[in-house]
Specification:
four-stranded antiparallel β-sheet, Dipeptide-binding Protein, domain 1, 533 residues, ten-stranded mixed β-sheet, alpha+beta, 19% strand, Dipeptide-binding Protein, domain 3
Length: 533
């Protein structure tokens, strides 16, 4: 055996031995995998709206963020527990208010510049500036005075609970204990960004020729509506652990096109399947279906007639046969849901209101539209996707049969769909929510008055106060009771949304793709993935 090969094998064995035990599960056995091109190709469901981590709003964008950005901490690809990221370790004070993060000496940006604690301070300051218009800015509100700074009650950012002890030590102070704060630090919104690059290139900073990031991969090219190509980042602190050399991301929003490309070996991984072929797809050996911490629902524009009347919203909710949708349309085992929050930790959802078409007719009549008479022309909007279209068609037919109302349907491309949702420019809109961390708060805080992810125009003072109460309550059982009361307001009293079913994550993945572990948030950091024969 050549001397260089012997040295390589010795180095590999030594490197593997130095890895923590949990990480060794994500190292290939032997050397055969190196004979396979380490190029992963997957469909992302749509063209991303943005690659600015502070402006990301959808799963489509956050999936890419896992490759090109990294926060202080990351999630374990198996059980989602917290693992070191840019910070190699951290200390938490006994009162749970102070977090001291120790940034890795070898943590660098993709241009080779060292990552410092100041990068997080300037990044989080930008996140909290009104002109940034970050809808997920509320995720940093556990930090002392963060919310007050965003709302202009405090002008001096130095009063916000984030400071640098030295270039490699970041100190974060919370205004009250937050059991899921480390999970927030793993989310893209709180990842570091290069403010100097943004100041130089403005909105064009995420173009391939401008972007500077810190994840295991960097952007090589981005051809709008065609593909995004990523390559291994040579400056990533854990560069030697990364197996993939290249990732190509396709923005297919047509599930049938995805499916056919997968069958023809043009894709290694698709994150959805064509609903009309579900019986066929489920027989394919590469098909997978697994639990997902998400809810599929419809939003109402509560600022616009007739949905400014909660009786109208209630009638439409009562008129939907969810079991018919999941049994005959989606057909992948999704649990029909009259509640909003899926199983998260120890939380147990309330029941909500069951399908009752006769009661729905009565409620709509009480709202001033007997048998649907005089009901205005309205529209149900969904992002372009055959699966969403089929669900919308079935529900609109139920509303016509049960209430005598006709509702138009309209699809929009992902970017315009998100824009209209943000601006509350719709009547009824398809939505989905995937938990950002393993706590019910991630489902309930989104509907607080003025919240960046509320997007319904709905406001309820009691709901807002309950959210405050839940964040102060340290008793886990009592805290869950508060969440139940909030859920009752959402789905039994006010109805700003209509839950439809709990999401099941399904797709197809080629057996060549290794290192992908199922988890309820469908988070798969790309540094743990490799290709095999």
């Amino acid at each position: 055996m050549p001397r260089i090969m012997i040295l390589l094998l010795i180095w590999t064995a030594c490197y593997a031995a130095e890895l923590p035990e949990w990480k060794q599960d994500f190292m290939p056995e032997g050397e055969e995998w190196k004979k396979t091109a380490q190029h992963l190709r997957f469909s992302n469901g749509a063209e991303p709206e943005t690659l600015d981590p502070q402006l990301m709003k959808g799963v489509t964008e956050h999936r890419i963020s896992l490759a090109i950005f990294e926060g202080l901490v990351t999630n374990d690809p198996s059980d989602l527990s917290i693992r070191p990221g840019v910070a190699e370790k951290w200390d938490i004070s006994k009162d749970g208010l102070t977090y001291t993060f120790h940034i890795r000496p070898d943590a660098k940006w993709s241009d080779g510049k060292a990552i410092t604690s100041s990068d997080f301070i300037t990044s989080w300051k930008r996140l909290l500036q009104k002109e940034t218009a970050a809808e997920y800015a509320y995720q940093i509100f556990p930090v002392k005075n963060a919310e007050a700074y965003l709302k202009g009650k405090i002008k001096d950012f130095s009063k916000v609970g984030v400071s640098a002890k030295d270039p490699k030590t970041l100190i974060v102070t919370l205004h009250q204990p937050c059991p899921y704060f480390l999970d927030l630090c793993a989310f893209a919104t709180l990842a570091p960004i290069r403010v100097d690059i943004i100041d130089k290139h403005l909105s064009g900073w995420t173009k391939p020729e401008n972007i500077v990031s810190n994840g295991p991969f960097i952007m090589e090219s981005w051809e709008q509506r065609k593909s995004i190509v990523l390559k291994k980042n040579p400056h990533y602190w854990d560069h030697d652990f990364v197996k993939l050399d290249k990732i190509t991301i396709f923005p297919y929003d047509d599930a049938e096109k995805e499916y056919q490309s997968f069958l023809k070996d043009g894709l290694d991984w698709v994150h959805s399947v064509p609903q009309k072929r579900i019986d066929e797809v489920r027989r394919h050996p590469d098909y997978y279906s697994e639990p997902y911490m998400g809810t599929y629902f419809y939003r109402f524009n509560c600022t616009k007639a007739p949905f400014n009347k909660k009786l109208v919203r209630k009638a439409l909710s009562l008129a939907i046969n969810r079991e018919h949708i999941t049994k005959h349309i989606t057909k992948a085992g999704q649990p029909p849901a009259t509640w909003f929050c899926p199983p998260v930790g120890i939380y147990k959802h309330i029941e909500g209101l069951a399908y009752n078409p006769e009661e729905a007719k009565k409620v709509l009549a009480d709202a001033g539209f007997p048998n649907g008479e005089g009901f205005p022309e309205i529209e149900l909007m969904f992002n372009t996707n055959e699966n969403h279209k089929q669900v919308a068609e079935a529900i609109c037919q139920q509303w016509k049969d049960n209430l005598g109302i006709t509702i138009k349907r309209r699809n929009k491309e992902w970017k315009m769909y998100l824009e209209d949702m943000t601006n509350i420019n719709y009547d009824i809109m398809r939505s989905g929510w995937i938990g950002d961390y393993n706590d019910p708060n991630t489902f309930f805080d989104m509907f607080v008055t003025g919240g960046g992810n509320n997007r319904t125009g709905w406001s309820n003072k009691k709901y807002d106060q309950l959210l405050i109460d839940s964040q102060k309550e340290l008793n886990p059982e009592k805290r869950m009771l508060i969440f139940q009361e909030m859920e009752r307001i959402l789905v039994e009293d006010e109805f700003p949304i209509i839950p439809l079913y709990i999401t099941i994550k399904q797709g197809m993945i080629n057996e060549r793709v290794a290192g992908v572990e199922p988890n309820i948030r469908n988070i798969h950091p790309f540094q743990y993935i490799w290709m095999e024969e």
